[in-house]
Amino acid sequence: MKQTLLNTWRALLLGALLGAAAAAPAQTLKIRDDRGREVTLPGMPKRIVSLLPSLTETVCELGECARLVGVDRFSNHPASVQALPHLGGLDDTAVESLVALKPDVVLLAISSRLTDRLEALGLRVVALEPKTHADVQRVMNAIALLLNKPDEARRIWNRIDGAIKHAAASLPPAARGLSVYYEVDSAPYGAGTSSFIGETLARLGARNIIPAELGPFPKLNPEFVVRADPQLIMVGQRSAPGLPQRPGWNQIRAVRERKICIWVPAESDVMVRPGPRMAEAAQLMARCLREAAAGPVAVPTAAFTAPPGGMR
Q1: For 4-48, what is each residue's pLDDT tens digit?
Q2: Contacts of 295 (CB under 8 A, 6+ apart)
Q3: CATH number for the 29-148 domain, one of 3.40.50.1980, 1.10.455.10, 3.20.20.190, 1.10.150.530?
Q4: Which fold has domain 174-304?
Q5: For residues 278 and 224, what is the distance between their CA atoms, to the nearest angstrom?
Q6: 13 vs 249: CA distance, rounded Å
Q7: Using an 8 Å Cβ cutoff, are 22 and 104 in contact?
Q8: Does residue 28 contact residue 42 with C-beta atoms inside 8 Å?
Q9: What pLDDT, on the 0 to 100 scale, is given for residue 308?
Q10: pTM surpassing 0.70?
């Protein structure tokens, strides 16, 4: 009889505890985004829309790809996101389609013109835009806070940092100190010393021809590159056509000596996204620097005239 009463008492106590837990409101999350605004969510988001590839990749690297319900046009990694609704780019996002997905939060770039409109429609928006290594680490921590995975964010950043150090250590002395022009667009726009690309180059011992005072990704006068006379050029295949024929560029050392690394589109995606694949980007840069130190880089002449494609 005594044991029966004890079991009954335990059952009642357990029921009361479970009932209290069910009645308790979900713990709210507060995050300060890159606009300086504090965004409050009623709990960990179950439905996320990401409108920036680096943010998409960060969510997935944190192990929460399943929470994504929509992405921007350019998000293509990992492969699983290619099956999600693609909602357009910075200037042509399909807002009605986005709203229909009923996201708990929308992750986008601070430069997006969409923020005010989405907030006016009642959506929670977190604007994050990494531009430097420190930004990548900070943004990763912010997204990890949303997903309750702070330890995972630290693990990922330590892996990235360690891989960059390893890539730097793998380079021969002849690869250090090479002057490099990294072109991100044929306008031309270059990756400056203060950009995340520039920071990686610096950690690999390369000398960027674009000084920090010009900004992270400045539009350049082509004559600037000619005068700087880089020993090595890194460029995406989309921008490479016609590069040696630009006025005066045939006099640049990198062009004369055929020390030009051309990234195929998949590699370009890795290089220009400040996120979890920065370790892979550092390895690609290190390979390019090693090849340049050894002699002319094996780039087919057709790469400068053919349309983008897997040529390398």
Answers
A1: 544 544 544 444 444 444 444 558 889 999 999 999 999 999 999
A2: none
A3: 3.40.50.1980
A4: Rossmann fold (3.40.50)
A5: 28
A6: 80
A7: no
A8: yes
A9: 41
A10: yes
The single-letter DSSP state of residue 261 is E
Please give the share of the chain, as a percent, with pLDDT higher than 70. 87
Q: Quote the pLDDT of residue 295.
A: 78
**Can you spell out the DSSP letters for 161-221?**
HHHHHHHHHTS-GGGTT-EEEEEEETTTEE--TTSHHHHHHHHTT-EESS-GGG-SS-B--
Q: How many CA atoms lie within 13 A of 245 on its CB side?
A: 8
Percent of residues in the chain assigned helix, strand, coil, to nearest 5:
45, 15, 40
Q: Which helix (H) or strand (E) holds 24?
A: none
Q: What is the pLDDT of residues 142-199, one digit of tens each?
A: 999 999 999 999 999 999 999 999 999 999 999 999 999 999 999 999 999 999 999 9
